[in-house]
User: Fold these one by one.
Assistant:
Number 1:
Amino acid sequence: MLTPDQAQDRAAVIVTRATAAGADAADAVYAADMSLDISVRLGALEDVGRSESAELGLRVFVGKRSASVSTSDLSDAAIAELVDRAVAMAREAPEDAWAGLAPKERLMRGAPPLLDLDDGGEASPESLRAVAQAAEDAARAVPGVTNSEGGSASASRSIWALATSHGFAAAYAATGYGVSASVLAGSTEGGGEMVRDYAYHSARHRRALDAPETIGTKAGERAVARVNPGRLASGPMPVVYDPRVGSSLLGHLTGAISGAAITRKTSFLLDALGTQVFSDGVTVLDDPHRPHGLRSRPFDGEGLPVSPCAIVEHGMLETWLLDTAAARQLGMEPTGHAARGVGGGPGVSPSNLHMVAGKVPVQTLIEDIANGVYVTELIGMGVNGVTGDYSRGAAGFRIVDGKIAGPVAEFTIAGNLREMYRNLIPANDLEFRYGTNVPTLRVEGMTVASG
């Protein structure tokens, strides 16, 4: 695999070739990845996967016309052909009044911030197998676990570089490690059914990864707790989201405030900028500079600097997420949230997104709920981004007289996201474990329908 400096040079070279071939402007992405995945099941090695990839993506502009192409063939002949094809395609493309590179004066200058995303380590298949085995062994050792879907461990290293024809070139490397376990509990005898659950952890640095025994034990305990689920009575009731599923509510938020949704007028928050969207106690922050964060980045997908920002502050929606094209169309400035792969132009994405912890413990959050549900799993994607209508299959646990009670399954929770956001209360148990993090969340007034 190339070093970041070599990747940066490779992206810059293809941009130079594109302008020499007749493009008025161009940008190029170089992305490479090397990963190793090991899985075991019932104590035996099940799968070993190793992959290495390297790709180049080129976007060219001829006036207001543009085209994007990509290749994994990095030979000189293939790249020369790629450049010629891209320029020819751009000349035939329809004009786009908003097309173009990011404003030159807004580009990141100087050295990228140091985010400590690459620990420089390597993992052997033997060491990963030991981690996967330890995770599964711990899960299977939990009393009540009756079968296993396996344990797994992974290690990866990636390089990402961006160069533009108007003066930007930079690259960075990142490592990633993961461990997971998935097991089943219960029995099909006597009309029973098996239930499954899992646990996982990911980290940029191997030393920050949870112990596999911790992950395995958590997976086993979660599965056993779900044995013999009951059914909920239908009706309106408070819904409490476990943090591992509550983060999806922020995913719906970022989709609704993306530049594409706003310019196409396909967002349930279309007129919400600068207004109260959540209750006063809710703040949502985006921090691309978190050291060794899972979604940290030193610059965005167009070469603009990135910085921590409040997306929601004390309930007020403070910003859209805009790449340059959407910003031009809206008469605004890009927000540094452009994100892109090798193919196509930029979209938008937050980085390390989180909802700030509230002031009340989880027990206090639920202690006045006489009849409610604690959701640990969401199923399906019944969310309408235009209207905000929300309907998801779910599983979890009853809340009875302020306490978590027995498991329940096969029910649907429904509402409208605008009302859900206004009726949302965060607990104080925020942990930074994922790319998007939230504390336990309580949402009033949802409708529960038993399956």
Number 2:
Amino acid sequence: MTEQLANHFEAIIRGLGEDPTREGLVKTPERAAKAMQYLTKGYNESLDELVNGAVFSSDNDEMVIVKDVELYSLCEHHLLPFVGKCHVGYLPNGKVLGLSKFARIIDMFARRLQIQENLTRQIALAVQEVTGARGVGVVIEAKHMCMQMRGVEKQHSVMKSSVMLGAFREHAQTRQEFLNLIR
């Protein structure tokens, strides 16, 4: 698979008018192929394998929040990066999720060709599925290179997206508590 991707990257380099045999580009197709495989490794991961049983019984029924989790993804429209942070909150219903698993879930979905709106929803649904929470809230704030490096070239634009499930959607007070805590 790496060799096939490398051949495609070599064709792209040629298509750009460059010489893939010049010193600085000799190994670029293979490096680019490996980088792309890493940046899209989420396709080869599953929620069950990532969580690996790290859901624990708990009497806590108050909001749990993990905020400022860095994320890196590739825009499915231009294959350019978007970079930001993700905040996840949930209301446990007898079960809590191991802390590192939030970052792993975020990365699994972010490491796919993606749009931010769908990424936000996928993370929320996964946390809901794994924990059986009474509610889940996810907010992502990201800068998109497709807006900064090309097109409109707006350097300071930030996209924010949110998905609220269960009590976070149904109860304004719960949603507001979450939003206040992630500020």
